[in-house]
Here is the input.
Amino acid sequence: MKRTLYVSAATAVVLVAGGPVAVAAAATADTARTVTSAAAVPGDVTAEAAAAAALKKYPGVVESLDLDGTVWHVDVISKDGKGHAELEVAADGTVTEENRDTDENAAEHKDLIAAKVTAEQAMKAAVAAHPGQVTTVEWDNDDNSAYYWHVEVKGADNKTWDGRVDATTAKVTTSTDSDDNDDN
Here is the structure.
């Protein structure tokens, strides 16, 4: 309230003393202040915090989580397997629901729901094997047999480490180092 009064009083003084040129300069200064505050440094929302925030908004099981710039994209399957929500978790922890389906085929998600190792546990196992920040975790079965969690961790050396975490034992079964963040 006081700031508004001060700004209003300052604007009145500028109008009287400097006319239209001073008003334009004052508006430019205020706009610069607004832009600077909007471009503030993003929060430090980790993969684990993004998963927790998404599950609070839409209870279920995390199917995938991916960092895109400063926004986490999180897919959650409902515990009965019939629902699916696509959520975004912003740098400040705000969760936005982008899409929700309630007519999923529960049979398609039965292995995910029954998995002994959750996405959160897979992230912990991957970081224990290779310290850094998780940037991606997703439920997968490339060879159409055993399910696993594909986890990407960005290390302090800026290299991306890819790993598979067994969905039954949480054991990191394969890993590779890569210099880039490509999915290939």
Observations:
- The CA atoms of residues 117 and 167 lie 5 Å apart.
